[in-house]
UniProtKB/TrEMBL annotation:
Residues 161-218 form the Phosphoribosyltransferase domain. CDD domains: PRTases_typeI. InterPro entries: ComF/GntX_DNA_util-trans, DZR_2, PRTase-like, PRTase_dom. Belongs to the ComF/GntX family. It comes from the Bacteria. This is ComF family protein. Residues 14-46 form the Double zinc ribbon domain.
Length: 223
C-alpha cells in the first residue's frame, strides 16, 4: 500500500503535465486532480447536522442543490467514476466515529442497470469509505431482485410503492448481517424510499442498527 502511494506521488507531476487538473464542474484549472475550484466549492451547501430516528441515523455530506447535482450527474451518468475519491472524502468528513465492528453496504443496482452503466456508483463510494475507516465492505449484502423504473417525477408515496419488496438481503450473507452494525452508502437520498427499502431488508435480516451515509440529500429548504 505504501509503495503504491509513493508511486502515485512520484508520477503525479507527469500526470498533471499531460492532463492538467480541472474542476470537474466548470473546467477551471485547479491545484490538483480531484478538487473543486473556489467558485464551485462555494456552491456546495453543507447540512447543519445529521438526522434520523431510532436505530437509523443519516449523515449527508451536502444538501442536494445545483452544484452537488452536477457532481452527481457527472459521477453517476457521465462515467466520471474517478469522482468517487472527492465525493467519499466529503462524506467521510460528515461521518461520526463508528466504534466497533461495522459492515459497509452499498445500495444495490439491478443487474440490468449495472450492465448498462458499467458500475454501481454507491459501491464505489462504499469501497472508498470502507478503506478509509478500516471497515469491512460487503458489496453484495443487498440484492435488487426486481428491476424498477426511474423514480424521477414520482412523489414519496409512489416511490415507496415502486420499491416495495424490490430489495432483499442476500441469502449468502444472512449470518453475517444478523446482529451487525451497518453503514448503508448511497450517492443521493431524495425521498428516502430506496434507503428505507434497504433498511427494511437489513432489519429483516437481523441487523442491529443502520447508519445511512450519502453524498447529497434533498431537503425541504433546498427544494
Amino acid at each position: 500500500m505504501q509503495t503504491r502511494k509513493l508511486l502515485r506521488q512520484s508520477l503525479a507531476p507527469v500526470v498533471d503535465l499531460l492532463y492538467p487538473p480541472r474542476c470537474p464542474i466548470c473546467g477551471e484549472a485547479v491545484g490538483e486532480h480531484g478538487g473543486l475550484c473556489q467558485s464551485c466549492w462555494s456552491g456546495l451547501v453543507f447540512p447543519v447536522s445529521g438526522e434520523g430516528e431510532g436505530n437509523t441515523q443519516i449523515s449527508a455530506a451536502t444538501v442536494y442543490n445545483d452544484t452537488s447535482r452536477q457532481l452527481v450527474l457527472a459521477f453517476k451518468h457521465g462515467g466520471r467514476f474517478a469522482l468517487a475519491g472527492l465525493l467519499s472524502r466529503l462524506m467521510l468528513a460528515r461521518l461520526p466515529v463508528l466504534e466497533g465492528k461495522w459492515l459497509v453496504v452499498p445500495v444495490p443496482l439491478h443487474r440490468r442497470r449495472l450492465w448498462t452503466r458499467g458500475y454501481n456508483q454507491s459501491a464505489l463510494l462504499a469501497q472508498e469509505i470502507a478503506r478509509a475507516r478500516g471497515k469491512t465492505l460487503v458489496v453484495d449484502a443487498l440484492h435488487r431482485h426486481r428491476a424498477t423504473p426511474s423514480l424521477g417525477g414520482l412523489g414519496k408515496a409512489a416511490r415507496a410503492r415502486v420499491l416495495d419488496g424490490a430489495i432483499r438481503a442476500n441469502p449468502r450473507h444472512l449470518e453475517r448481517l444478523r446482529g451487525a452494525n451497518i453503514l448503508l452508502v448511497d450517492d443521493v437520498m431524495t425521498s428516502g424510499a430506496t434507503t428505507t427499502s434497504c433498511c427494511n431488508a437489513l432489519r429483516q435480516a437481523g441487523a442491529a442498527q443502520v447508519h445511512i451515509a450519502c453524498f447529497a440529500q434533498v431537503m425541504d429548504e433546498a427544494i
